[in-house]
Design goal:
Elements: H1 2-73, H2 81-113, H3 121-146, H4 150-155, H5 159-170, H6 176-203, E1 213-214, H7 217-241, H8 248-278, H9 285-318, H10 324-336, H11 339-355, H12 360-384, H13 388-408, H14 416-425, E2 430-431
Antiparallel strand pairs: 1-2
Helix pairs in contact: 1-2, 1-3, 1-5, 1-7, 1-8, 2-3, 2-7, 3-6, 5-6, 7-12, 8-9, 8-10, 8-11, 9-10, 9-11, 10-13, 11-13, 12-13
Length: 433
């Protein structure tokens, strides 16, 4: 009986964890495949273009998805497609504007430091279409997460990297531009898949919605701003490493991918599904208590998994079974992988602040984190060389997680009256059904 109860409670966790493996694998393999196919020097250029796209996706698509989960959490019933499109238009407009402003500035910033990046401008443009497409896909993925269909939203994330891997596998002479086109086509296919699934789920709901979808407005803009500042940590690190030895950026990307794989396994497999539950946290003491318990358990679990992963990476190095092109990246990953626990705590806190409509606070913490990372990365790079960058990032992520804990420990006490008042304040932004 106890085993049956355990299986019933955690069956959905197992399903989403399996989905996260399929969603993660292509993205994890892509930089390794590029390093083997192109060599360190050319791989730096390809991963440069990919990293700019990834930064933009993390700024706009992740924010849109979180906003979508929170918005659908306040609505019960079937929603007409025309109303969803009206809701999504503002997200698409804000996301497209952010990407079209963000990517050129980033490219020019790096190109001014090192002219070798100018050869990869076509690849930057090709990869740059992905975050715009992803901003629309994230509206549907957020709706599916809210309606407890998180597995398909998670698993489909690997589509863009899978398309790029297929280009590498079947076209050995493919240019970075071709890989970028394949990457964006993969995201376009994901959009079609999620839109079709949402229409199916929405059609099965029993009744029409009786309330309105509240558009993102100032809250979504604040999310974009905070996410953009937070992504500045990665940009600062890559900027400093661009003056380092050849292969440093590739090593950093490999270490970040390994760390991100562990983080994403826990986040996609366990956090995303709970976000659909947390979306009803306002005025609900039971869900507030569950949120706090979930964050403690997820952070502890990630720490244990980090220790196991670091040990495994050390063993792989010790037995000499990794290619020479990967050794520096694996070494840096051992240093960086424990930071995934801090990232899980931060991600949970950010999602909760979105639910209670306190996105403005995100900007304070992300700005302090950026400043701290800039100082530590510069000092550690000067003192220890390129390896100082992952060490500085580990310290900054740990400190930022503590800051978010202090910021959010009382935020779940926002009551029903405050929720209703905020909804009235934003009613001018709503989308009518």
């Amino acid at each position: 009986m106890k085993m049956r109860r355990f299986w019933t409670q955690h069956r959905e966790d197992g399903r989403t964890a399996a989905a996260s493996v399929f969603g993660l694998a292509p993205g994890l393999l892509l930089p390794f495949a590029a390093a083997l196919r192109l060599g360190s020097a050319d791989a730096d250029g390809l991963l440069f273009a990919l990293s700019l796209s990834t930064v933009a996706v993390n700024v706009v698509a992740v924010s849109v998805e979180a906003n979508s989960v929170a918005a659908f959490g306040r609505v019960s019933g079937r929603i007409p497609l025309s109303s969803l499109w009206k809701f999504a238009k503002r997200d698409l407009l804000l996301a497209s504007t952010a990407v079209l402003l963000f990517l050129p500035v980033l490219y020019l910033f790096f190109q001014a430091r090192d002219d070798r990046w100018s050869a990869y401008l076509p690849a930057v443009i090709a990869f740059g279409a992905t975050p715009i497409i992803a901003s629309v896909a994230s509206v549907f993925s957020g709706a599916l997460i809210r309606h407890r269909h998180s597995a398909i939203a998670i698993m489909s994330q690997g589509g863009r990297s899978l398309s790029a891997l297929l280009v590498i596998a079947f076209w050995p002479e493919a240019s970075p531009l071709a890989m970028g086109v394949g990457y964006s086509i993969g995201e376009l296919l994901r959009l079609g898949l999620l839109a079709g699934k949402w229409r199916s789920v929405n059609a099965r709901l029993d009744s029409m919605a009786t309330s309105n979808l509240i558009a993102g407005g100032r809250g979504l803009t604040a999310q974009f701003g905070a996410a953009g500042v937070a992504q500045g940590n990665a940009l600062v690190n890559r900027f400093i490493l661009s003056a380092g030895p050849v292969g440093s950026i590739t090593a950093y990307e490999l270490a970040e991918k390994a760390t991100f794989a562990l983080y994403q396994l826990v986040y996609s497999g366990l956090v995303v599904r709970r976000f659909g539950i947390w979306s009803g946290i306002r005025g609900n003491a039971t869900r507030q208590s569950r949120y706090r318990r979930d964050v403690r358990n997820l952070t502890a679990l990630t720490l244990v998994l980090s220790a196991v992963a670091a040990g495994g990476l050390y063993a792989v190095l010790a037995f000499g079974v990794v290619p020479e092109e990967w050794r520096l990246g694996v070494t840096w990953a051992i240093v960086l992988v424990p930071s995934s626990a801090a990232s899980i705590a931060m991600a949970s806190a950010i999602r909760m602040l979105v639910v209670v409509n306190r996105q403005g606070r995100l900007l304070y913490v992300s700005t302090l984190s950026l400043l701290a990372n800039g100082v530590l990365a510069t000092l550690f790079f000067a003192w220890f060389g390129a390896v100082g960058i992952p060490v500085a990032l580990l310290a900054v992520r740990g400190g930022t997680a503590i800051a978010y804990y202090l910021l959010t420990r009382n935020a779940t006490l926002v009551g029903r009256a405050a929720h209703e008042q905020e909804t009235n304040d934003e009613i001018s932004q709503y989308v009518g059904l």
